[in-house]
């Protein structure tokens, strides 16, 4: 039995991969100008957008493309560079938080205007408002199916801080 190479599933995955690769290559040069890797940018963004500007290391791994050991290495490097710091978890001695520092926030503030300009030019600006809304809904559905930990720690930490 021969596989239908015109199967629209191949097209969908292929187009998604091509778009992602094209966007990340355009973003990489801009990150490099600010002495950040794409992963370091992702970590800073996740921390800056999280309640209290912090996430447990395990939750940070769940929200990124990194393994728990990969997050440890990246956070260690970013800690040495002063962009993040670690804080002990008061309720669980085995856990620690990654927290964005003032220097990390300052670096992020330097990167964001240029990054948003690229996002607008090459991503958001290519779509109508209706296309964007539909795509965001679709991406959340797919993300939640393939990475159910993607929002780990976001709501949990907000509830702890509110208590």
Automatic annotation (TrEMBL):
A single MF term (Gene Ontology): DNA-binding transcription factor activity
Recorded superkingdom: Bacteria
Domain (HTH marR-type) ranges: 1-144
A Pfam family hit: MarR
Coiled-coil parts of chain: none
GO biological process: response to stress
InterPro entries: HTH_MarR-typ (IPR000835), MarR/SlyA-like (IPR039422), WH-like_DNA-bd_sf (IPR036388), WH_DNA-bd_sf (IPR036390)
Name under which the protein is recorded: MarR family transcriptional regulator
Species of origin: Paractinoplanes toevensis
